[in-house]
Amino acid sequence: MKKNRHQKQENLHEQVEENTEEVLEQNDSKVQLLEEENQKLKDELLRALAESENVKKRCAAEVEKNNKYAIAGFAKDLLGVADNLDRALSAIGGAENADCQALLAGVELTKKELTHVFEKFGITKMDVLDKPFDPNFHQVIQQVSDPSKPSGTVVAELQTGYMLNGRILREAMVVVAKE
């Protein structure tokens, strides 16, 4: 009987060990699965954070761009005012009359103030005379023979071109030399 009991205890002990090993193996397997899932979730989180950061940067760049060029429509409308002030200065330029001189001074001050406002908001005149023709910045109105200039050189500006923060606002209307 003692042998039987001892045998039973040994069998029970072996079963406990086997069950323990089985439970440990199952636990190890579960831990491994949980670690893999944890790593996968960490990767997804890092990717989501990176994407979020990229979206934030793109939005900031878009906002900056919109702020920089938001006045383009308004600025284009003001270019007509600048053109008319230039025409007024040209028309009054040779007058000797005192009244004309006062008008000239007023128009010059107005033009100077408009130029200052343009500069403040990043609107600049294009310098096109004696430069090679560039279809991205110039609109050819006429071609003339001018042996003193290389072919394709801008020899006259009929309407001033303007840039807004380095981007074209209005093309310059030009006369180009030809052979």
Secondary-structure topology with pairs:
Blueprint lengths: L1 H68 L2 H21 L5 H23 L2 E3 L12 E8 L8 E6 L2 E3 L2 E4 L1 E7 L1
Parallel strand pairs: 2-6
Antiparallel strand pairs: 1-4, 3-6, 4-5
Helix pairs in contact: 2-3
**What is the total tally of β strands?**
6
Going by helix content, strand content and strand pairing, the class is alpha+beta
**What fraction strand?**
15-25%
Order of helices and strands: HHHEEEEEE
Question: Strands of the largest sheet, in order across it?
Answer: 1-4-5
Helix content: 55-70%
Specify the overall morphology: rod-shaped
Taken together, the total number of domains comes to 3
* Quaternary structure: single chain
What attributes does this structure have?
179 residues, alpha+beta, Nucleotide Exchange Factor Grpe, Chain A, domain 2, three-stranded mixed sheet, rod-shaped
Structural write-up:
There is one protein chain. This protein is of the alpha+beta class and 179 residues long. The protein has three domains: 1-70; 71-121; 124-179, Head domain of nucleotide exchange factor GrpE (Nucleotide Exchange Factor Grpe, Chain A, domain 2). Helices cover 63% and strands 17% of the residues. The protein is built from three helices and six strands. It has helices at residues 2-69, 72-92, 98-120, and strands at 123-125, 138-145, 154-159, 162-164, 167-170, 172-178. Strands 1-4-5 form a three-stranded antiparallel beta sheet. The chain has a three-stranded mixed beta sheet with strand order 2-6-3, with no helix packed on it. A hairpin with a 2-residue loop joins β4 (162-164) and β5. α2 packs antiparallel against α3. It is rod-shaped, with a radius of gyration of 40 Å. The termini are far apart. 8% of the residues are buried.
